[in-house]
Amino acid sequence: MFLAPALTALALFFALPVAFALALSFTDFDIYALGNWHFIQFVGLANYARILETPLFWTALRNTFYFVLAGGPLSVGVSLGTALMINSRLARFKPLFRTVYFLPVVTSLVAVAIVWRYLFHPAHGLLNYVLSWVGISPIDWLGNPDVAMPAIILLAVWKNFGYNMLIFIAGLQNIPDELYEASEIDGAGAWRQFTSITIPMLAPTTIFVVMITIIGYFQLFAEPYVMTQGGPLNSTMSIVLLMYEQGFRWWSMGYAAAIAFVLFAIILVFTLLQSAIQRRIQG
Amino acid sequence: MRRRIPAIALNIVLVFIAITTVTPVLWMVSASLMSPGEASSFPPSLLPKQPSLQHYEALVDRLHIVRYFLNSFVIAGAVTLISLFINSMAGFAFAKSRFRGRDRLFRVLLTAMVIPAQVTMLPLFLMLKTFGLVNTYVGAIIPGLASIFGIFLIRQFAYSIPDSLIEAARIDGASDFKVYRSIVLPLCRPILFTLALFTFMGTWNDFMWPLIIMSDDSMYTLPVAIANLMGEHTPDLELMMAGSVVTIVPVVVLFLAFQRHYVRGIMMGGVKE
């Protein structure tokens, strides 16, 4: 009874669309079908076959993996590093630092992507100006295919690290002080304590953080949409951006639905991998 | 004494990261107050020579920013109110009602969280188009009506309500709805507030769905409007910064005002297993 509204909403606007999307991915639903559904034809796995033959899909896949596998660990690393520093007994003004570090998380991604687009400007961007102090010559951040993705990763890490940092801080505070005290009596140094207490005790938190980061990072969309439109030379084209363009710009909705399911499959594989690792660690 | 140098080094690093973190935000505010062209000079100017609100005036007078602001506000507000009601009822049922298959159903929902929202967007658009809901507030609100994460948060919290309290009310003849209204809702107030903050800020910042469902300029939310402004004609940097400030300030103010409540949501979501 109390579940009825929630289950109805989830069934109608979540479960049903997922099933519908799967069906859609087996059709040639395009701009003509949008006008008149009689034009829809069942095409079996043709969309999936077409995906595999499209070089742009492979580019998008490679870019997305680049973003996830380089940006993900970097982001988690920065989160862990800042969490350890803030949690340290030596740190001052902890609440202030915590708030400041977290601030970018709540901002609108679109708005900060616009800000960073100007910060990355090769001629009068603040970033190149600061880098010039240490003798680095101007970098065409968003215009050079080799550095456009690193630039987007930089923005993503800046925007996100505060979130995981909070989760790490909570995890660190859950480690009983007695463990550290006991090891100190046994003569363990700071590094030894870190490797034999902090890291193992933090493992469940780390797995959780890595998992939500990976799932989130696979859905890269707004950053390239606002900053580069997938360019230059498709170097920042992501899977979701490709899906959006195919589905909502060219109205090849059958094809776009197939792309969406490939994304889902990838995320599913990573999630299963994570839970397998989790089971092994926890016994 | 031995600790002195590491302590200083550590705090310097913390300050350095803090500066890196806030600089883009502060520069945005500063550049939004500069006169046209001033922010794209070299070397970059950090503070406006003569602060002016002219770009904010332009946003209001020429670029309908008030309309976008209201669109964002109405959509985020409606999603927050409706979803809070729906999710709290479901969270209560999953925590305190006894029915067959309850825990299994809940596990199914949790598992379904793996499905990325993008999968649903194409069919949802087609469904809403069939019902004439493209370009409407209703269309923008629909995907946010119920959230599995919200149900999860409330369920975790409602668990801690003692069963005896609920039993006592039932013996006194209270209906399920009465129990929900006069016991569960008041006791869950902290988590409801947290979830309201999450939902409002999340919907305010949401980009992809409003981008898809709102095709008419007058229905854009703030993020869609400024992204569109950016794409159509590369406008003045200073004007874009003013637009970004308008988009960011409401959520930042909410966060700073209710930080503790917001952080609690992350902690509860983070200690999942």
Word description of this protein:
The complex is a heterodimer of chains A (283) and B (273). Chain A has 283 residues and is mostly helical. Chain A contains 14 helices and no strands. Helices cover 74% and strands 0% of the residues of chain A. Chain B has a single domain (53-270), classed as MetI-like fold. In chain B, helix 2 (54-61) crosses helix 13. Chains A and B meet through helix 1, helix 4, helix 5, helix 6 and helix 8 of A and helix 1, helix 3, helix 5, helix 10 and helix 12 of B.
What structural category do the secondary elements of chain A indicate?
mainly alpha
Say what the CATH topology of chain B is: MetI-like fold
Whole-Å distance between the termini of chain A? 39 Å
What's the shape of chain B? globular
Q: How many beta strands in the DSSP annotation of chain A?
A: 0
- Count of alpha/pi helices of chain A: 14
Q: Which CATH first-tier class of chain B would you pick?
A: Mainly Alpha
Helix and strand run of chain A: HHHHHHHHHHHHHH
Radius of gyration of chain A, rounded?
A: 23 Å
Proportion of residues in β-strands of chain B: under 5%
Q: In DSSP terms, counting alpha (H) and pi (I) runs of 4 or more, how many helices of chain B? A: 14
Q: Beta fraction of the residues of chain A?
A: under 5%
What structural category arises from helix and sheet content of chain B? Answer: mainly alpha
The CATH architecture classification of chain B is Orthogonal Bundle
Q: How many domains comprise the coordinates of chain B?
A: 1
